[in-house]
Amino acid sequence: MIYVLDGQGGGVGRSLIERLKTRVPQEKITAVGTNSMATAAMLKAGAGIGATGENSVVYCCGQAGKEDVIVGPLGIVLANSMLGEITPAMAAAVSQSLAHKILIPVSRCRASVAGVAEKPLTQYIDEAVQLIQER
Fold first, then answer.
1. What whole-number distance in Å separates Cα of residue 104 and Cα of residue 125?
2. 3 state DSSP class of 114
3. I need a labelling partner for 123 at 20 to 30 A (CA). Which of 56, 72, 108, 115 fits?
4. CATH number of the domain at 2-134, out of 3.20.20, 3.40.600, 3.40.50, 2.60.40?
């Protein structure tokens, strides 16, 4: 199972899901949005199921096992990131989940990762999908 987490407009999640649907069509994808607009965008992109809000993020991360993947912007592990949409409980749930995390460096999260080259967002999304394919 692949859990795609996103907030705000769901643009990163939407792009991830569109690429995942073409490159790993056999995988089940769950869209988990911090708000209904993000979830709707990810469902429209082809996620099989969607959930919205803090409790959904906490629940889905708790259900995810070692064989699963959680993918989304770097901010999903940073409390109060994404303009405050990521609550401390959400960040903790993602961080503590047994699932493998694939984090996309996004500048709107007000965090940088040392050693990561500045690239267009689409290239980071392609790299994230490649990592999922390799798993």
1. 7
2. coil
3. 56
4. 3.40.50
Distance, CA of 67 to chain centre: 16
CB 73, CB 125: distance < 8 Å? no
Portion of the chain with pLDDT greater than 70, in percent: 99
Question: Which pLDDT tens digit goes with each residue over 5-32?
Answer: 999 889 999 999 999 999 999 999 999 9
Amino acid at 5: L
**How far apart (Å, rounded) are the C-alpha atoms in residues 12 and 41?**
10
Chain center to CA of 77: 10
Q: How many CA atoms lie within 13 A of 45 on its CB side?
A: 28
CA distances from 71 to 15, 43 (A): 12, 15
Domain regions of the chain by residue span: 2-134
